[in-house]
Amino acid sequence: MTTTKIQFTVQGMHCGACATSIQMLLSMQEGVTKASVDYDSKKGEVEYDPEKVKIEDLFKTVEEIGYKITKI
């Protein structure tokens, strides 16, 4: 399995629990091997298998719960 790692910024987080929620949501998606989100820097990183999931779909999933994601 070949994975891809993408970094992104997150707009709309109000606390550390927001970062945890986004991280958990991404981690639960099929094809994601690792996800991390940092509230202080407003940045995150996701490692995923592009054969199983598209980055656009991962970002859309997060945006559906009210956050704006921008690839770095």
From TrEMBL:
<dbReference type="GO" id="GO:0046872">
    <property type="term" value="F:metal ion binding"/>
</dbReference>
<dbReference type="Pfam" id="PF00403">
    <property type="entry name" value="HMA"/>
</dbReference>
<dbReference type="InterPro" id="IPR017969">
    <property type="entry name" value="Heavy-metal-associated_CS"/>
</dbReference>
<protein>
    <recommendedName>
        <fullName>HMA domain-containing protein</fullName>
    </recommendedName>
</protein>
<dbReference type="InterPro" id="IPR001802">
    <property type="entry name" value="MerP/CopZ"/>
</dbReference>
<feature type="domain" description="HMA">
    <location>
        <begin position="4"/>
        <end position="70"/>
    </location>
</feature>
<dbReference type="InterPro" id="IPR006121">
    <property type="entry name" value="HMA_dom"/>
</dbReference>
<dbReference type="InterPro" id="IPR036163">
    <property type="entry name" value="HMA_dom_sf"/>
</dbReference>
<keyword id="KW-0479">Metal-binding</keyword>
